[in-house]
Design brief:
- It contains 21 helices and 21 strands.
- By secondary structure, it is α/β, with parallel strands linked by helices.
- Helix content is about 40%, strand content about 20%.
Length: about 625
């Protein structure tokens, strides 16, 4: 096993790092939530960061996603290694070129932060409606369930594509994975260099369209031959899952992170299994151990390679004891008699296990980033345990129109957080709260042995609207692809006192937790300024209550209304996750990285405010 660096990244940056390292041409066009991938690659190339071959990748911003796909198509025909990033309608604008790229067997990877396609309304949030709309293009489809997988599968997708000549769509859940900051292991350049199949790279280059080696490609065909040529690709697609598995095995041997086309987690003798892909698989995986410990025979099957689908690998990964399966799709196809993954699983079982066919149910969940929690996972397993489980259902909403929704117990919790700390920070868009918390979770993840996760909730108005930062850290891996739940927050900070009248923040506080309030009220009189429900929560839950006038500290140090570093300092002082001196040094280092190059004066003012914060807390 070779050297790897522990870093805190979000899913977008994780995928972009590998993409920039392994490509020569990057064509981009911004679309939420995939834009940061293109922005990162553009910044790195502008700064002269080189790829694996010592060259700076050429990054072009086109006038649309259709233009980006066209530019990539042309670069591939010239023998370049090329990539792009997109989501939602942007992906759909790439369809014509995707059919051509796949038809011409040109290896490449499109990295997608999967997002809702606008239907009755537009949504910037995540589900699988965009990637499911491109199933017939001929692209392979590899799904990452976490930030670490977004990094690992970015490499696996490109290596497999080069070897098998099938272009790949590497996707992960928009916002839930693309914007989640988590602790990951980043392979160094030399490990990537050793793993990369240089012969496959050379073979791709040798197929370039050049005058010295003319070849006919992309011709027009008539009915006499088109059908035959289309069927001629069958062996390539039939053999591709084995290539992907081989690449996964090589990667696992080098990094210690082993993957299968379909990964099963749970009881060996499970009778009920949930099949799904994306971040929801992490939540289901987190929930299963508690249910198994309680005597339930359950498990979860995480789908990695969705296209080409290996029915043999899928069926082999399921326990033979399985008698009921719920296939969960994060998309809706109106008018269909089932969603795509459900139909694939049903077909695979009908063809390969007809004599021992389990009950197969299809469920929809998580559209437009709707929450998917352990309580909902438990409800799906409970439905499978009934004598006649519903063939089709939804989970996570109250469907009072077609009455397809399952009930769930919102008080149910997994036991994954008994040793971890969960924290919430309420701020205002553009007030620096999110940036400060990103720094905080990076400090925890990179300067301690703790696992750490940060997720940041905005509404679509972004600037000027409420932001809620969800931070988790603890000694065990964190698979919670959902928000901090009611009664679970060990630490809550309110950065804007006006929020006291709008939100019942302490409903989410855990007994014995801590509440930090930014207020200009006198510390001796602040109790009387709290709404009655806040007073009741503090008393009933025996919360520790801290206050600071962060705006005064900011004003005194020339920072105007920028209170982010001040509140960040208070968090570390109260939480005790690091020795105070170490935490202060780390915050000052982050300030230097953020402001030092732009303004020495601003950096100095922030350092002074950090020192003042402790005295005023």
């Amino acid at each position: 096993m070779m050297a790897q660096q522990t870093v805190m990244l979000d899913g977008n940056e994780a995928a972009a790092r590998i993409a920039h390292l392994l490509n020569e041409v990057v064509a981009i066009y911004p679309i939420t939530p995939a834009s940061p991938m293109g922005e990162h690659t553009d910044d790195w190339s502008a700064a002269g960061v080189t790829n694996l071959w010592g060259a700076v990748p050429d990054v072009f911003e086109m006038q649309s996603e259709a233009g980006a796909a066209g530019a990539i198509h042309g670069a591939l025909q010239a023998g370049s290694l090329a990539t792009t990033f997109t989501a939602s309608q942007g992906l759909l604008l790439m369809l014509p070129n995707m059919f051509k790229i796949a038809g011409e067997l040109s290896p490449m990877v499109i990295h997608v932060a999967a997002r809702t396609v606008a239907t009755h309304a537009l949504s910037i949030f995540g589900d699988h409606s965009d990637v499911m709309a491109v199933r017939s293009t001929g692209y392979g489809m590899l799904c990452s369930n976490s930030v670490q997988e977004a990094l690992d599968f970015a490499f696996i997708a490109q290596q497999a594509s080069l070897r098998g000549r099938i272009p790949m769509l590497h996707f992960f859940d928009g916002f839930r994975t693309s914007h989640e900051v988590a602790k990951v292991e980043l392979p160094d350049r030399e490990l990537i260099r050793e793993l990369l199949d240089s012969e496959a790279v050379d073979a791709h280059r040798s197929r370039a369209l050049i005058p010295e080696a003319p070849v006919l490609r992309g011709s027009s065909q008539n009915p006499d031959v088109f059908f035959q040529a289309r069927e001629a690709i069958n062996p390539i697609y039939d053999g591709f899952p084995d290539i992907v598995q081989q690449v996964m095995d090589e990667y696992g041997a080098a990094t210690g992170r082993h993957y299968r086309l379909f990964d099963y987690f749970g009881a060996e003798d499970a009778e009920r299994v949930i099949v799904l892909m994306g971040s929801g698989a992490e939540t289901a995986r987190e929930t299963v151990p508690g249910l198994v410990a309680a005597g339930e025979k359950v498990g979860v099957l995480a789908v990695r390679l969705f296209r080409p689908l290996s029915a043999e690998a899928l069926v082999a990964a399921l326990p033979e004891s399985c008698r009921a399966i719920a296939v969960l799709d994060r998309t809706k196809e109106p008018g269909a008699d089932g969603e795509p993954l459900y139909k694939d699983v049903l077909t695979a079982l009908a063809e390969l296990r007809p004599q021992a066919m389990p009950t197969v149910c299809g469920g929809r969940y998580g559209l437009s980033s709707k929450e998917f929690t352990p309580a909902m996972v438990a409800a799906v397993f409970a439905e499978l345990a009934s004598e006649t489980p519903r063939r089709h259902f939804t989970i996570g909403i109250n469907d009072d129109v077609s009455h397809l929704s399952l009930d769930w117990d919102p008080s149910y919790r997994s036991d994954a957080h008994k040793d971890s700390v969960q924290a919430l920070f309420y701020g205002l868009g553009s007030d620096g709260t999110v940036s400060a918390n990103k720094n905080s979770i990076k400090i925890i993840g990179e300067q301690t042995d703790l696992y750490a996760q940060g997720y940041f909730v905005y509404d679509s108005k972004k600037s000027g609207a409420v932001t809620i930062s969800h931070l988790r850290f603890g000694p065990q891996p964190i698979r919670s692809a959902y928000l901090v739940e009611d009664g679970e927050a060990d630490f809550i900070a309110c950065h804007q006192p006006v929020f006291l009248e709008r939100y019942d923040m302490l409903e989410k506080a855990a007994p014995g937790g801590t509440f930090l309030l930014n207020t200009d009220a006198d510390p001796q009189l602040v109790w009387d300024t709290l709404p009655r429900n806040y007073q009741r929560h503090i008393i009933d839950k025996q919360l520790k209550f801290y206050v600071i006038d962060a705006y005064q500290v900011a004003f005194d140090n020339g920072l105007g209304k920028r209170i982010n570093t001040i509140m960040q300092t208070c968090f570390f002082a109260i939480a005790g996750v690091l020795p105070t001196d170490d935490a202060i040094a780390a915050i000052k280092q982050a300030v230097e990285a953020s402001y030092g190059r732009k303004s020495r004066r601003v950096a100095a003012m922030n350092r002074d405010a950090i020192d003042s914060a402790l005295a005023e807390l």
